[in-house]
């Protein structure tokens, strides 16, 4: 694989018709030559595009397309929906099994009140925004990106219970290092 393209999924992108997705993104911008999609892949506004439409477009624009079969793990169909459900139910073992690796959260650190630093536990605040996360709670974690090796830490997912003004509104994860 030479490139990975991460497209911001915003309202404008979500409103693209299936045909526009094919002609503008796949053909004009990416020059796609081969496309592999899941057996239940849908795309375009209102999920109007499907494998059959991609096959027709492939014949018209000159690219090949193939469909993969469903993959299961422990009798559960591997899908983003199944992963989100496992996380919503706080079933981190199932989420890890479906993902093939432990669930991770990443993001850009935002400035906080530095309260943890005053008692010897500096924190890194990561806003969750639209990320799917496990059930609110406190977790033992490994923090990556601060050196050569992962550092042990504690993550609080959810609100900031020690700061009354933010107890119900602050949706942030912070690592205590």
Q: What key attributes describe this structure?
A:
about 180 residues, alpha+beta, four-stranded antiparallel beta sheet, two-stranded parallel sheet, 5 helices, elongated, disordered C terminus
Explained architecture:
The chain has helices spanning 11-14, 18-29, 51-61, 80-88, 92-99; strands at 34-38, 64-68, 72-73, 76-77, 123-127, 137-143, 151-158, 172-176. The chain is built from 5 helices and 8 strands; from the N terminus they run ααβαβββααββββ. The protein starts with 10 loop residues before the first helix and ends with a strand. Helix content is 25%, strand content 22%. By secondary structure, the protein is of the alpha+beta class. It has 3 domains: 11-68, no CATH class; 72-102, no CATH class; 116-176, no CATH class. The strands form 3 sheets. It has a 4-stranded antiparallel β-sheet, with no helix packed on it. The radius of gyration is 21 Å and the shape is elongated. A hairpin with a 7-residue loop joins β6 (137-143) and β7. Mean pLDDT is 83; it is low at 166-177.
Q: Give the uncertain stretches in residue-range form.
A: 166-177
Number of strands: 8
Shape: elongated
How many helical elements? Answer: 5
Radius of gyration: 21 Å
